[in-house]
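S.,

As promised, the FE2/S2 (inorganic) cluster run. Input:
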Amino acid sequence: MANIIKIMEGFSFIPRSELNLLEALESQKVNVDYQCREGFCGSCQVQLLEGEVEYTSEPIAFIPEGRILPCCCNAKSDLTIEIPGGCHLKKTE
Ligand code: FES
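Predicted complex:
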């Protein structure tokens, strides 16, 4: 069954299963910082408030407790996350 991704501020969606969490957030036009997109730099990290993720590749970056790297994981259950700096949607032209 599809998992639901909830972002603290009240936005939620069901991600397409072939996307990692970062791609899923981007598909909803949610702004998340990133650089390497491969688990090296740690710049994409978000707070995991509820739920479980599964890493598709072992992250190299240090991950503080309670945080996850969305560029290399998928939702394993329904998730509630908090994006540092708040949830901002990208503007569409
Ligand atoms: S973008 Fe570098 S660890 Fe996710």
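The mean pLDDT is 92. Residues 34-37, 39-44, 61, 69, 71 surround FE2/S2 (inorganic) cluster (CB under 6 Å).

- D.
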